Protein: CinA-like protein
Organism: Desulfatirhabdium butyrativorans
Amino acid sequence: MIAEILSTGDEIRTGTLVDTNSAYIAQELEGMGVRVLRHLTVGDDLTELAAVLQEIGSRADIAVVTGGLGPTSDDLSAEAAASAAGVPLVLDPEALRWIEGFFDRIGRPMGDNNRKQALLPESAVRIDNPIGSAPGFHLLIGKCRCFFLPGVPLEMKRMLRESVLPTIDTLLGSGARPIRIVTTLSSFGYGESMTAEKLTGFDAAFPDIRLGYRAKFPEVQIKLYLEGTDRLKLEARSLEAAGWVKERLGGRVFSDRGESMPEVIGRLLVERGATLAVAESCTGGLISHWITNVAGSSRYFLSAAVTYANEAKSRLLGVSPEILLRHGAVSEPVIREMAEGVRRMSGANFGLATSGIAGPDGGTPEKPVGLVWIGVSTQENGTSARSFQFRYANREANKQMFAMTALEMLRRTLCQNS
Amino acid sequence: MIAEILSTGDEIRTGTLVDTNSAYIAQELEGMGVRVLRHLTVGDDLTELAAVLQEIGSRADIAVVTGGLGPTSDDLSAEAAASAAGVPLVLDPEALRWIEGFFDRIGRPMGDNNRKQALLPESAVRIDNPIGSAPGFHLLIGKCRCFFLPGVPLEMKRMLRESVLPTIDTLLGSGARPIRIVTTLSSFGYGESMTAEKLTGFDAAFPDIRLGYRAKFPEVQIKLYLEGTDRLKLEARSLEAAGWVKERLGGRVFSDRGESMPEVIGRLLVERGATLAVAESCTGGLISHWITNVAGSSRYFLSAAVTYANEAKSRLLGVSPEILLRHGAVSEPVIREMAEGVRRMSGANFGLATSGIAGPDGGTPEKPVGLVWIGVSTQENGTSARSFQFRYANREANKQMFAMTALEMLRRTLCQNS
């Protein structure tokens, strides 16, 4: 079964926005054994859109189209689909009810232009949107079953997973289909090229397993795709391959079930019944933000002090002004006092602190942009402090590397202290 | 002049890698006045590649193709281009010399398979690679001048900028080209649908201006695209249209030059020589993270207290434990004490505080998920406190709405106090 993926929208056509939907959809389809032949992108042009849908209709068995389902005059996917399929647009009363219900739920008035979103091709089967206002739909164009989803990634992924992939699964037929498992290893420490290089030889060692990478800076996810008829055998084989990968990456794999770093930290703290407080300078609140993205983090996360100004380091964390003056904020003595100070003052079991230079300004020859000190203070095993020198091109990348490295240092401490 | 962009490679076809090259190239071409009609992606398949090149050759004037110039058996772009153009592959001795020189420079032996990279279509004009081993090239396929570049972003961008774009510029001819300006208005407060609805009538009022939207939740960017020959006239017309938009959106436009909210906050604080401290509960560090993403924020941002646990609200901000007990953390009395506490204790001119329920747990009938109290404390004009009820489906969305609304409340206070 051949599939094509079409992303629509002027922001993608002109490159204002990078298309991440196509890669996501391609991975999901390929994971089901569907062969993705081609991706296309066109803009908000009715003629162009209808024409490319007809082309796809003559070539592929399945297509997934994203974008163009919104309420504005740029949103033309339903109209183009109807045109390509040679059917009229009709008002779907159920779709209209769903849209009205959506605006009701979020407590906002429904606009006139939202009515447009209930106009679907006559032959279309509606795909309800559990998150936003735009319903998706699928219909036959030429010989191709075309699925139309919103361009908003959150909505697209949900509807793909809950409606589209199961439908495609049915289309693939109910013959004894192989069992597929995907194992996701989350790693941090090597970039994508280096990770791939370290895993050279995987194909020879595991010719039965497809290896994939997903860059989620600063993480790299390694994905193992296995297919067979015996689930237990597959899981054992997956464990073997995961072990091989972990050994080659020398301790940089921090989860073998695709967890994010904050999720792992949360799990480790809960397992130990321990609490955490954070002192952030250069990371500016990013570590706390990541930690508090995890539902239930109030079980272990007490507080953070974002001590951007040096005065705040003294006032909120008890860092000695003399030490600040003598060594500067980005130094070992200061990071030790920050980590210990935040732990002691908050009553937490663990204190984590960062102090560095995210750039672009603020660097010196002795302390260049990209330098960070990280401290982890424990109740029973003292305080560890380390410095790292990164060289990323921009402030945001440096902040993310600093924050991720800090969490990795905390993770290793938690794993030791268990 | 019409262009198409083709990225090649199985990692992109299968979605293992997200294609960022196409967006980059599209932006550059559109910026030169070339209209990018379509993007395509195909895998490492000679037949498919040659076929799609012939299709492009019949449709476009210019094409930029990335990938498939490496030394492995998957690298088929030169062969496919030759096939599509109906010419043989020939060894380019200058290309071979260049590749040998590259390996010489990096002190590694040249592989046999690297010789393959010097085999180019007979009619091709070589584009030397200043960074890697693979030369690019351009040739005519059908009516289309097709440029072939490596897939490695760093190499692609350099060769695009140094060779391809100047060549395209020559092809465009030296006639008077129109001037293009893009005005970006950043807004917050209406969703994308409501924004579009409020701007109904724009096309009738300004038929010479193209209107676009960019959803950057929780912001909506409104983009005005003008084209003409007189820059001053265009700028005046843009101002007029921006004024019309601002009036329709009732104060929700916070920047007429595409600034982000934290950039605007930073600018307003610097203009007033004022400083800021933040107390975050439910937003967990997100506000501070956003603020500190702006280079130079240390000029006005002193510190933040992420007081996730109630005890931390008392310890770090001086919030009375009795008030916490009587009213709960998510209440007006507590938010006032948080905002005033953080301002007083930090010595900042302005204090901003948030306390709410991001979900999915923690809601009650009286205080549902999505409720947030926001306080802004000033030195001379007292403290304002307001509550908002949002109903977003997930924790991250609620956090972002809370944080953005808090910054907007601060922005309005700053604009009043000037």
